[in-house]
Amino acid sequence: MTPLNVALGERSYPIDIGAGLLDRAGELLGPRIASRRAIIVSNPVVAGHWLAPLRASLARAGIDAQVVLIPDGEAHKSWDTLHDLLTRLLELQAERSTTLVALGGGVVGDIAGFAAAIYQRGMRFVQIPTTLLAQVDSSVGGKTAVNHPLGKNMIGAFHQPDAVLIDPDCLRTLPAREVAAGLAEVIKYGAIRDAAFFGWLEGHVDRLLARDPAALEEAIAVSCRIKAGIVAVDERESGERALLNFGHTFGHAIEAAQGYGNWLHGEAVAAGMAIAARLSQRRGALAAGDTARLVDLLQRSGLPVAAPAMPLERWLKLMAQDKKVADGAIRFVLLEALGWAVIAGDVASDDLAAVLG
Ligand SMILES: NC(=O)c1ccc[n+]([C@@H]2O[C@H](COP(=O)([O-])OP(=O)(O)OC[C@H]3O[C@@H](n4cnc5c(N)ncnc54)[C@H](O)[C@@H]3O)[C@@H](O)[C@H]2O)c1
Prior knowledge:
Elements: E1 2-6, E2 13-17, H1 25-29, E3 37-42, H2 44-60, E4 64-69, H3 79-91, E5 99-104, H4 106-118, E6 124-129, H5 132-138, E7 143-148, E8 151-158, E9 163-166, H6 176-193, H7 195-209, H8 213-233, H9 248-258, H10 265-282, H11 288-300, H12 312-320, E10 332-337, E11 340-344, H13 349-356
Parallel strand pairs: 2-9, 3-4, 3-5, 5-6, 6-9
Antiparallel strand pairs: 1-2, 7-8, 10-11
This protein binds nicotinamide-adenine-dinucleotide.
């Protein structure tokens, strides 16, 4: 097992990573569930695979766990689903001391986390992520949200979990396309922060796609260590945390243009990272060889490296709706080398036109 910690003073919490940990959830989480009462939030797909072992483990630790299922899919990451979940919590007479346990991908984690942030002004919350994307990204860092028809993740709160428990075995049942989409975020960590990890990924991508347990645990642990380190110094994204948005400004525009769910988030981020690398190269900041290595690794992961054609005005409009806009200016995360990202607010429109055209 790889134990990590997100260092946020009295809101610090552990991230435990290891194959088979779901069966030890009661033992590991038990000490953090003082009220002995938990409500598991999941969806029918994930529950069909992984609810029974989680419930059994919690029961062995003397924790009574009720279950609330929400519908599957990004389209249901909505105010209506949140409202229904809050209604169920009231019907079940959940208390502030009750622990909400999110068992699922980023959609379940983001909605359950937001419900935990606002139910009775904040209840306890544990993340058990079951997609690669959620294991390396969304379960760590305390961002919670639902989508609004006018914008993705626009309604939300920062609410850190009490613990994150990651069992790479859960990925055995994940569709291959979702594994590849999660790999996009893993590659992102190497690209922005850790050249050695990027090199390791180049050597291990085939094993990761084949779901080799040791390779997965290593990739998840390094990713979580990088994210935890960044969150610890910039919890509310006033500086360094923005680097985690590498590829996301372009990616969110692709997702919005294509309709959420047609392109997976990780696929859009992959194409966005390739575009950001080409933009970095065009500005003279990134060597052509580094752009080629990033594009090659994304392609070997089965990910897209180009966006669907869109007029420049449409790109600009969609990117201007992104949360990463500050004082009306779009800020781009660019690379100076593999392993070193910077923020740029001064990107010329002809450079943008050249890489988006
Ligand atoms: N909070 C954050 O910091 C943060 C960061 C990145 C992304 N996100 C959000 O995460 C969401 C995307 O998350 P996602 O990629 O995990 O998508 P998801 O939650 O929709 O899961 C993808 C699909 O896989 C299924 N699934 C989940 N685990 C499974 C398993 N073990 N076996 C079989 N099927 C399984 C789900 O039911 C779903 O159909 C987006 O809404 C995005 O905005 C949040």
